[in-house]
Amino acid sequence: xxxxxxxxxxxxxxxxxxxxxxxxxxxxxxxxxxxxxxxxxxxxxxxxxxxxxxxxxxxxxxxxxxxxxxxxxxxxxxxxxxxxxxxxxxxxxxxxxxxxxxxxxxxxxxxxxxxxxxxxxxxxxxxxxxxxxxxxxxxxxxxxxxxxxxxxxxxxxxxxxxxxxxxxxxxxxxxxxxxxxxxxxxxxxxxxxxxxxxxxxxxxxxxxxxxxxxxxxxxxxxxxxxxxxxxxxxxxxxxxxxxxxxxxxxxxxxxxxx
Length: 258
Ligand SMILES: [Mn+2]
Prior knowledge:
Blueprint (H helix, E strand, L loop, with lengths): L2 E4 L4 E4 L9 H17 L2 E5 L17 H16 L2 E4 L9 H6 L3 E2 L3 E6 L2 E6 L9 H10 L2 H8 L3 H21 L9 H10 L4 E4 L6 E3 L8 E4 L17 E6 L2 E6 L3
Parallel strand pairs: 1-6, 2-3, 3-4, 4-5, 7-8, 8-10
Antiparallel strand pairs: 2-11, 6-7, 9-10, 11-12
Helix pairs in contact: 1-2
Bound molecules: manganese (II) ion.
């Protein structure tokens, strides 16, 4: 049985902002979005990879400047509209302490969101990349409670170094990997939605924003949230970012570039 969350619309959803020391312009765009959400949203849900990496909630006690700034903005939005945060594959170590710190609530990995009787499955999405066996193996290891305990017992400095190494390795694998392995497996999603008697899903992770209409393989509506990028763009490349607004049965996608 999946966790259920009942909220009044409009609910704003975003993911894959990848906040970090190297993304100051992206952070600024995201902070503008937070201001807008706090004025217009009934609730704001961030579905993971809010941070490019998360090395433990105690990071906030010695937070670098970019992080203090991000925390300030997240705290501000939570005083004006209910804020929910979920974990992604980059920031899976986010815990209750961080949520409390910013006045947010922690989302379970998969949640059924009910808005005026319309129901949506919410998830980060990495769990659906089931064709990527190597990633799923890695995911099981890093989600192990004892592995996490051992990691969190290290100094913040050591944790940061390990995280950086892991990032470099994962980028190497992605470059050499077959691209088709990286997207979600629609059959996996279809099975879950059918089991839960749902008709729609909203997820992030793949950085392939889209509204997939029902098909024979996946007879459900599937909204994929965009990633955010205003820092590392080639000349002429538009900045990326956006969100989804859900109000009852109505789903609207909004894009930074438009
Ligand atoms: Mn992700």
